[in-house]
Design a protein that fits this description.
By secondary structure, the protein is an alpha+beta fold. 31% of the residues lie in helices and 15% in strands. The longest helix has 27 residues. The chain starts with 19 loop residues before the first helix and ends with a helix.
């Protein structure tokens, strides 16, 4: 089992630094190398001109300009700095385009990471809920007055420092969730092998960093992250969490076998819409092997899922889904009390289709609402998002209630915004998978909480998060103690449930 005390999700294993196609087809290159060695030995000084034949993808890489930088972005022993510079015209264009039409337009910016400047990069707004303030929508007021809130939007905010929903403002560029692209304006360009980085809103976002670390520590695919001292156009600095954003390089590093990675859209539903692939254009986005335009494995699965009765579901789900990894995913989301997983309003998940096993694996994504909600939910209860779906903030804390919890738990009794997901619901309701889920759940509970791993990760994080103009040492300490109390409550609750 991987060391659960590691703070950052582990770096790509060494073999993932070798192109996947080379890992899979190593015999041909090895034979060629041996051939060259033998020929050189036999012919001595005779000039040998090698010619490579076969699949060019074995050697070639889609990244043609990989900016190495000065230090590894995910090295936690270094204080990282990230700055974005753009003209006022570009900034205004990004904001007004979103305010008028909701369009998240790419604009040109210069980005500096740990002293390395990348000219003519691109940035755009990212997210849904956190951008309501940019459009002039007050989510709490809208919910109170009964106004319709756009689909995928949560009306509550989390307590300071504990993640949850942080509202962005156009008046404060550092508050905006941004997606940084290195190849939008320069094909083939990447920074340390990544074509995109996601700048998360809020500070210090301990909950998301912990959720990412604990997911990785239980040997599940996730994303790497780094804390940075962040600024925009020379603004006062803020502490921001930066994540690698899933691109084709990320997709090709997740597993040793070939496959397709699909991202669920925020407004998607895991439902069959017919055999025409175009019917799913606004539901799922193919991340890698995009030129193949191959949504057929997903459509085939959805068609079966739509028509399968309970008996067929129990008997044949394992033909389509890696049920062991799915049980692990679901158990982890519950243990971390993530109200915005694959069944939340954000529909936050990726699907990996393995071309060898011909089965799907669910990959977690966007854990910014994990570890903030009702720490007392049980293994079969669903964390959800909504005014009545959570307890209030810790006594004495400013801000609204946490954004995740259980319907009906906590004050207010308001209506939950839980969207649901038929695959998740049918799996948890099925007696055929009950033992698998229970065994998986309590095994992960031992790894994450009972072993003390969650608190060790928290202690390590507390020593690596940089302070800034926007995050004082005192504020960081307060956030750490709030998270510590949450973890202790979660551990105690699960201890009591298991011993009952």
């Amino acid at each position: 089992m991987p060391d659960p005390t590691r703070v950052a999700p582990p770096k790509r294993r060494w073999r993932h630094r070798i192109p996947k196609s080379l890992r899979q087809h190593w015999k041909l290159p090895l034979a060629f190398v041996l051939f060259v060695v033998i020929v050189a030995s036999v012919f001595g000084a005779t000039t040998v001109r090698p010619y490579i034949t076969g699949d060019a993808d074995i050697i070639a890489s889609e990244i043609t300009d990989n900016i190495t930088g000065t230090v590894d972005l995910f090295d936690t022993s270094v204080t990282h700095e990230l700055s974005v510079e753009m003209t006022q015209a570009e900034y205004n264009d990004m904001i007004t385009s979103f305010q008028k039409s909701g369009d998240k337009k790419w604009v040109t910016a210069d980005v500096t990471i740990d002293g390395t400047r990348i000219n003519d990069a691109s940035v755009r707004l990212k997210g849904n809920s956190t951008l309501m303030g940019v459009r002039g929508i007050d989510p709490a007021k809208s919910a109170k007055e009964g106004a319709e809130i756009p689909e995928g939007i949560e009306p509550t905010q989390g307590p300071p420092g504990m993640g949850g929903l942080t509202q962005a403002s156009a008046d404060d560029p550092t508050s905006l969730p941004l997606l940084i692209s290195f190849d939008e304006n320069a094909d083939g360009r990447a920074y340390q092998g990544m074509t995109e980085l996601s700048v998360r809103p809020g500070s210090p976002v301990l909950n998301e960093a912990m959720a990412l670390s604990l997911t990785a520590a239980t040997d599940q695919p996730t994303q790497r992250y780094a804390y940075t001292v962040y600024s925009v156009n020379g603004s006062p600095t803020a502490t921001r969490l930066v994540l690698e954003h899933p691109d084709d390089t990320y997709a090709n590093s997740l597993f040793d076998s070939d496959g397709y990675l699909y991202k669920a859209d925020a407004n998607s539903r895991l439902e069959y819409r017919g055999d025409d692939q175009s019917a799913y254009a606004d539901q799922f986005k193919q991340i890698n092997a995009v030129d193949s335009g191959n949504l057929q494995p997903l459509i085939t699965f959805l068609k079966w899922l739509d028509s399968a009765n309970d008996k067929e579901f129990d008997a044949h789900l394992a033909d389509y889904i890696d049920v062991e990894s799915f049980a692990k995913y679901l158990a982890t989301q519950n243990l971390l009390v993530n109200g915005d997983d694959m069944s939340g309003p954000g529909q936050n998940y990726y699907l990996w289709y393995d071309l060898e096993t011909r089965k799907f694996t669910v990959v977690s994504w966007d854990l910014n609402l994990a570890m903030t909600g009702d720490a007392t939910i049980g293994p079969k209860e669903s964390a959800s998002i909504g005014p009545g779906g959570q307890n209030g903030p810790p006594e004495g804390a400013d801000g609204a209630a946490p954004a995740a919890g259980v319907p009906g738990k906590g004050p207010g009794g308001g209506k939950s915004q839980k969207v649901g997901n038929q695959l998740k619901e049918r799996f948890l309701e099925s007696g055929a998978f009950a033992d698998l889920y229970d065994e998986t759940y309590w095994s992960l509970y031992e790894q994450i909480y009972r072993s003390g791993a969650a608190l060790r990760v928290l202690d390590e994080l507390a020593t690596t998060i940089p302070t800034s103009d926007g995050l004082t040492a005192q504020s960081l300490e307060t956030s750490v103690e709030e998270m510590r109390a949450w973890v202790q409550q979660r551990t105690t609750t699960l201890d009591d449930i298991r011993s009952a």
